[in-house]
């Protein structure tokens, strides 16, 4: 366990090292590439350690390992190329009357926040969101030193990753710019608190539960000097299966969704959670039976931690106890004991008769009178199917990281009800409704599997994240650790290279309103 004094020492050393990072973008890229290469060299050891601690298989962890090292390299490339700083230059107008406000020369770009980025990873992605995951890679790329808080569900993996990355940092004689604080006891929140409240902490990257993210956000807001928290949290991802798609490809869709639900034993923030079927008297029950059959075929597995197991079991039992919800899978209880160890099994619940796609239908009550929202995240291999009148659910359901629609072309023309209520009937309008409440809209493809690319958005409105203006995945994630700064009437020799007339780095800039790589005056 880390004492507050240890947090203080680690934060202070990381803060003292940040100038080394800021000075030179090539240096930052080399560091990121160096960490990726060092991790590659110890791949097998990392996979074995991580598998032993998490219960995820090496085959499940291998793509995550590849994503971790690729992400480090993606940021190395973005930083080396340089255009990510979003440089903009507006020179004085030749005819001053044309300009709004004083006719100054103004130039802006992104600069790193001044201090340390504290990183909290999640239990379910020990590599991609861990010590050397996307938050660390993007923060180092931006020019911020980092302190990672250990996740109590995988301390050995965390320490191994940190040792490997720290040896690269040491080789570069760059100080202690990647710190790590231990925290083996999940009940001990003092480490998290001291890290968020530390004077040198300038921003927080969090991946995990809604309760954890909001707790850290509260701590950060209540500091004397509040700081931003970028919390990627959990939500129930929605899948809508339209009438024709259900009738024509119900069996195939059930197979795709079953595979997506049981992958990594359902412990994914992108797992399908709430499956909405456009009402169809025959295809609906057949789909539920097929999905349940496939989930029943999956073996019991160990979960990531005791707490994750407890919560999964508790939520499934609550769902099972709701009068209007039926259990579609065979196994009565989510928990089984195998050779003295706790295991859990996939579960499917259905509410086909009463749920008609409005807010009331999503709120159910247990016999003891407690409310339960069918669109609450159940972290683990469980899903809820509801029958509905259609896409209207998008108006009511809580926002989610991902919204998926399975549809055939004629599903878009079945809009009689909408027109009756005076709602525009174009397909584009339906898509607009869908994206009101989601970060990523997937069409005829499962929500699991996140590509690391410029066009990716891994985020969305609350509760998917507390910062819907950002993404946690892809090169744009670097902007979370930056702020824009403007230079007014500044001599060339005092400007950073990104903003000098000659554009020595050859980056893409907006000069007088036009995108260009050209030097000014060339
Ligand atoms: P978690 O329990 O919230 O833990 C994440 C980290 O936050 C841990 O280090 C934890 O430390 C700390 N923490 C949690 N509650 C805290 C509090 N009240 N005060 C201070 N620190 C706190 O999450 P998890 O169980 O590891 O991960 C599963 C959840 O993450 C799921 O809901 C999943 O959907 C979500 N997730 C989201 C994404 C995404 O990108 N949106 C990705 C992966 C996972 P302690 O254990 O010591 O409390």
Number of helices: 16
List the strand order in the largest sheet. Answer: 10-13-16-9-8-17-18
Which hetero ligands occur in this complex?
Answer: NADP nicotinamide-adenine-dinucleotide phosphate
Strand content: 15-25%
Structural class: alpha/beta
Number of strands: 21
Q: What would you report as the Rg, rounded to the nearest angstrom?
A: 25 Å
The averaged pLDDT comes out at 91
Overall form: globular
Topology summary:
Layout: H1 4-16, H2 18-23, H3 25-41, H4 43-54, H5 58-81, E1 88-90, E2 106-112, E3 116-120, H6 134-142, E4 145-149, H7 155-171, E5 178-181, H8 190-197, E6 201-207, H9 210-221, E7 229-232, E8 237-241, H10 243-262, E9 272-278, H11 283-296, H12 306-320, E10 326-327, E11 335-338, E12 341-344, E13 347-351, H13 359-362, E14 363-365, E15 371-373, E16 382-388, H14 393-396, E17 400-406, H15 416-420, H16 427-435, E18 438-443, E19 482-488, E20 509-511, E21 514-516
Parallel strand pairs: 1-20, 3-4, 3-6, 4-5, 6-7, 8-9, 8-17, 9-16, 13-16, 17-18
Antiparallel strand pairs: 1-2, 2-19, 10-13, 11-12, 14-15, 20-21
Helix pairs in contact: 1-8, 3-5, 3-6, 3-7, 4-5, 4-7, 5-6, 10-11
NADP nicotinamide-adenine-dinucleotide phosphate binds at residues 120, 122-125, 129, 149, 151-152, 183, 186, 189, 192, 207-209, 211-212, 215-216, 232-234, 269, 308, 377, 379, 401, 458, 472.
